[in-house]
Structures are given as C-alpha cells and as structure tokens.
Amino acid sequence: MFDSTASNLTSQQSWVHLIQDHDAIRLLEITILPPYLNTCRWFAGKARQQSYFRIQFVHDIPFISGPETDEKAFLVILKVGYLDGETESYLLPLSFVELGQPDTPEILPKGIITGAVFNQKRGLVVDAIYDERFRGALYFNLVNQQVLLQKTGQLTFHRGRGLADDDSTGEVTSRVLPVDSSNSALVFSVPGQGEKYFLKLYRKLFQETNPEVELVSFLTEKSQFSHIPAYAGSVVWEQEGVPDVTLGMMQRMVENRHDSWNQTGDDLNDFLYAVPHRLFSIKEEVFDRVELLAKRTAQMHLALFNAEPDDSLFSPEPFTDDYREFIIQRFENLLERRYNLLIDNYTKLDPLAQRLAWVFMEAKEMIDEFVDDFRNRPLESLRIRIHGDYHLGQVLVTGTDFIIIDFEGEPESSISERKIKHSPLKDVAGAIRSYHYAVSAKLFGSVETAGIEPDHLQRVSERWFKLIRDTFMDAYLETIGSPHPLFKNSSEVNFLLLIYLLEKAVYELGYEINYRPAWVKIPLKGIMDVIREIEKIRIADPARDSELPRLQMGLLQPKKE
Ligand SMILES: Nc1ncnc2c1ncn2[C@@H]1O[C@H](COP(=O)(O)OP(=O)(O)O)[C@@H](O)[C@H]1O
Ligand SMILES: O=P(O)(O)O[C@H]1O[C@H](CO)[C@@H](O[C@H]2O[C@H](CO)[C@@H](O)[C@H](O)[C@H]2O)[C@H](O)[C@H]1O
C-alpha cells in the first residue's frame, strides 16, 4: 500500500499554481502518473508498449465553498503515446488533500496517486473522484448549468430532463460506486430521497460527442421509452472550431438487485439441479422474463426508429452500398486480426479450443464467401441507431422489469464507427450471444455442472439455448409487428441475424483471448454454430457455384481429454 507519509512531489508553489511548476509537471508525467495509470482498470493501454505520458490540457474545477486557496481540482487530459499505433487521451481529475487537518477526508488507497508538499503543506495528490469536494462541485455545476471558462475553450454543464427542478439547491452527499469498469461511476444522494443520480465520468476521451449521451438524451427527451435511466445532464469540453469532447454524463440512479446476466445464471442453476435426474425443466417464469426482455429490446428499437425524418443523427436509412462496403471491410479486417491473434495464442489454448480454432481457420474461405454475399444481396430492411454493445450485463433487473444501460458502444470500435446505423438485429444478436455465453459458462467447468456427464450436459445445454433463443426471437418480432419497415421479410431477418451473430462472436474471440483465455471456447463455439448454418444454406442451394470443400466438422465430436 502507498505510504502516505512519504512525499514524492515537492513544490514551492501552492496546489492552485501546480501548472506553473514545470518540474512538478515533468515529475508527474515521467515518474508518478505512468505507474499509477497502469494500476487502473479503466486504463485500456496497459497491454500496449507505452512511450510517453503528457499532460496536454488542464481545466479548473473550483470547489463550491471554503477558503479561497487550494480549493480546486484539475481536470487533466493526459495524452498517452505508444510504440505501436495511435495515441489515446484519458481524463484524470486531480485534487490535493492536505493531511493533518480536522476535516481531512479519508481517501481510499486506490485513489492515492502520490504524497506531496505544496507550499509547505503536506498532503496527498489523489484521483479527485475520491474527494467529496470535487464530486459536490460537479453536481453543483450540473444543476446550475454552469459554463466554466478555461485557458482552452470552456466546460459546459448541460441539464437533462431527468434532473428534477427541486434538486437544484446542490445539497447532496456522494460516493464512488465500487465497480471496476472502463469508466468511473459517482452516485449522489439528495437529502430525504436517498441515492438519486448516477454520474459516469468517461476515462478514455474522444473528440466527438459520446454516442451514449446522444442515445440516452434522445430516448429520454424525444421518445416515450422509459426503460433506461433518464438523462439528467452532461459535462462537455467545448472549443471553437473543434468537435466537443464529452467528459461525463448524469442519469437517474436505478435501484436494482443485479443484472440480467446474474439472473440468467441463477435461472440456469435452477435448471441444472434437475439435469442429473434426467429431468428437463425450465420454469415458466424464465420464459416470461426472456419474453419481457425481448419486448423491452424491441420497444427500444421502435423508439429509435421513430425519429423525426429531419433528425439526421437518428432517422432510418437503407442498406446503401457504402454501408455494405463498410461492413465487409470491417469484417475482413476483424477476421484477419482474429486469425493472427489465434495463431499467436494457439499453443496456449486447451485441446477443445484448439480443435474449434482449427475448424474456424479452415472455414475462412467459406466465411469470406458468405460475407461477400452482403455486397449484392437485395436488402430492403432499414438501419437505425442501436445500443451497439448489447448483452445481459447491460440490463439491470428492477423488481419484475428491466432497465437498459451503457450505450457507449463496442469498446474496440472508434467513436465514429459506434455511431453508424445498423439493423437492430445487431443488438438482437448481442442478446442471443449472451444467452449462449450464460449456458456455455456453466457448461465449461463450473461447480454447478461438475457431476454431470459431458455429452448429456452438452445436449441439454443446446436444447436450453435453442428454446431461449427462439422465445426471445418470437417475442421480439411480435413486438415489432409485421409488416414493419425495419425488417422486409424473414429471409432478410435470417441472413442479417447470421451476419451479426458471426461478427459478434468473432469480436468476442478477441475479447476472451485478451481478458479471459479460459472462455475462448465460448465464442469459438458460437462461430461454429453460424458456420453450420452457412453450410446448410450452401447445401440447400445447389445453384451456388462454389468450389469450396465441406468442412471437417467431425473434428468437433467430443473426445476424451
Ligand atoms: N443508472 C444507474 N443506476 C444504478 N446503477 C447503474 C446505473 N448505470 C450503471 N450502473 C451500475 O454501474 C455499472 C457500470 O455502468 P456502465 O454503464 O456499464 O459503465 P461502463 O461504461 O464503465 O462499463 C453497471 O454495471 C451497473 O451496475
Ligand atoms: O465492458 P462492456 O460491458 O462494455 O463489454 C465488454 O465486456 C463484456 C464482458 O463483461 C463482453 O461481453 C461478453 O461476455 C459477457 C459475459 O461476461 C456475455 O454476456 C456477452 O454476450 C459477451 O459478448 C463484451 O463483448 C465486451 O464488449
């Protein structure tokens, strides 16, 4: 643990003049911040070879009350350079907590960056999210729609409809939500009303409005869809002639027991208790829940579809040649990166994963041919803005209903890619993949399945998945209604769903190789399922003049390991 009595940063200046002390800034950039960032879950550059950290911009956030000196935090925009590829920018709010004062706050060890002395005052430089004064200042600025002029541009605090008028006094207490994710989450309690607002500070920054703010504010302010936490405001860095940078977004806090991923895991445990007794039983309430989630998903898509025709950010669009080309290029690029990643990591995979990886590699030409079909196939369905990274972990369970969160899109894609309109079947594919993940996670070595014979487990799991998938699809399409311009006909639905299922599983393969190697089998198995479907289409259509040989699916028969 960090020794808070040691002082690693000493400056003759006071904290508020940090920026004028070039030696202190260099020490932060070279010695103090790099190791700190590498301990943070939200720093996505950990696995890359970092070449420099540069404090690029520093914005002031004055605290709300208190004496004039030392009473502000800095919003530091840190540029990180790498030996390979593009630089990244991260948001790091900094504040100084003087030690030995009657009101010195307790700072969690993970928030302490370094011990420091500023103008003979001894204290700690901390990630300001752990400093109540900073959190209070953010809330005050949001409720008062402040504009804070900075050396470069201004910080504008926007209010959203989800912020109640009577909460404008700014009297709140706050805490950091203890979730380790790609961003940081702060929660504000309003006196007498409990925890009411949830503020996400984005860590990796982009020179563009975050898609999450666009989607959540649209759904709150321009639609009737109420199964998201209402948009309550955002913090934006604005500069003349340059696109805005979104630094944070506030929503209503949602009381939740857990998310749909955990709930599905509990449902699966129930299901698995009966399996050793050769009973196949899924409770009715499980089907009810799957149907309800499908319905909420479809209602979200209908709300996004119903944008005003002149709202170019949201209005539906056809499958243009440009879009088709974009998808094909992106797919080919993704496939190449994944094949390389698999080759580099092949020897680290267990025997089943190696067999699955082998079939995937063998299927390359067939996949290419299938994806290529996207170029010319007549498609009259429509594309809209979608969630973009939809899975069961993005759905909070509230009593008997659901609330959908985290509209930031796929972490691996650029911000402009995340704003591209797709068929909503891409989100549907995300949900279906997630059910497949849930059952597969149990299948591959969980305590609940330890005593079940593998072949039997495989059979019942597949049956469970197909029933759940079909229940979801039926309820989803029924809610959308037929005919509907989003989906021209069932053959388009089937084709698009296969494309997005394949793309999602291939995307997941990279996520698992990088973060959870033991789960690499799960997306590989998902890829196999799509490959089987593609084979069926090829076989059923003798008119297709394909030279490609049949795949060696026999490799996938269970083997004693
Ligand atoms: N409005 C909300 N109310 C309550 N909890 C929330 C809310 N939004 C998110 N959370 C909780 O915070 C976690 C992180 O939020 P998420 O939007 O997924 O952040 P990230 O972009 O960092 O992945 C979620 O898994 C959920 O538990
Ligand atoms: O961090 P995010 O929520 O933005 O999403 C990333 O991490 C997810 C894992 O937490 C990952 O989702 C994959 O694993 C889930 C189970 O943990 C499963 O339900 C999803 O279907 C599967 O895609 C997601 O892909 C990644 O972008």
TrEMBL record:
<dbReference type="InterPro" id="IPR011009">
    <property type="entry name" value="Kinase-like_dom_sf"/>
</dbReference>
<keyword id="KW-0808">Transferase</keyword>
<feature type="domain" description="Maltokinase N-terminal cap">
    <location>
        <begin position="36"/>
        <end position="131"/>
    </location>
</feature>
<comment type="similarity">
    <text>Belongs to the aminoglycoside phosphotransferase family.</text>
</comment>
<dbReference type="GO" id="GO:0016740">
    <property type="term" value="F:transferase activity"/>
</dbReference>
<dbReference type="InterPro" id="IPR012811">
    <property type="entry name" value="TreS_maltokin_C_dom"/>
</dbReference>
<dbReference type="InterPro" id="IPR040999">
    <property type="entry name" value="Mak_N_cap"/>
</dbReference>
<dbReference type="GO" id="GO:0005524">
    <property type="term" value="F:ATP binding"/>
</dbReference>
<keyword id="KW-0067">ATP-binding</keyword>
<keyword id="KW-0547">Nucleotide-binding</keyword>
<protein>
    <recommendedName>
        <fullName>Maltokinase</fullName>
        <ecNumber>2.7.1.175</ecNumber>
    </recommendedName>
</protein>
<dbReference type="Pfam" id="PF18085">
    <property type="entry name" value="Mak_N_cap"/>
</dbReference>
